[in-house]
Amino acid sequence: MEAYGSVGNGNDAEYGRLHAHLADDLTIERLSEIFTISTSHMRKIYKDETGMTIKDRVSERRLAAARTLLGDPRLKIQEIADQVGYLTVQSFTKAFKMETGKTPGEYRAELLRVNA
Predict the structure, then answer these.
(1) 11: exposed, middle or buried (C-beta count within 10 Å: 0-12, 13-18, 19+)?
(2) d(Cα 104, Cα 92) in Å, to the nearest integer?
(3) Which terminal residue of the chain has fewer beta carbons within 10 Å of its beta carbon, N or C?
(4) Per residue in 70-85, pLDDT tens?
(5) Helices and strands (H, E) in the chain, number of each type
(6) Distances (CA, A) of 114 to 67, 93, 107, 108, 109
(7) Can you tell me the distance from the alpha carbon of 39 to that of 73, in angstroms, rounded to the nearest whole number?
(8) Using one digit for the tens of pLDDT, what is the confidence trace for 49-59?
(9) Where are the beta strands (DSSP E) in 1-103?
(10) Are the C-beta atoms of 62 and 84 separated by less than 8 Å?
């Protein structure tokens, strides 16, 4: 595994690589290119090391970045969706609500109220 670098153990290098590409189309094929390994091997070692799928990890990282960005009231929700890699506000809102139980707007309002 060391020949490939860290792919899935949740360390800073992994997060840095994923974060740098959040706005990209992060398909398994694209991630395999980033980490320079085959797609089938990428799926297997990632799942073995983390217990989660790459798709789930990418979604987790995108939504974590979105939660941070929602703290900036100058950013429109569309801009945040674009920055974290969602093609539409609707798909971003649906994923965000499934993860947090709130829409991005509701989350932002609560966050800004708490930090006021």
Answers:
(1) exposed
(2) 8
(3) C
(4) 999 999 999 999 999 9
(5) 7, 0
(6) 14, 21, 11, 10, 9
(7) 39
(8) 889 988 888 89
(9) none
(10) yes
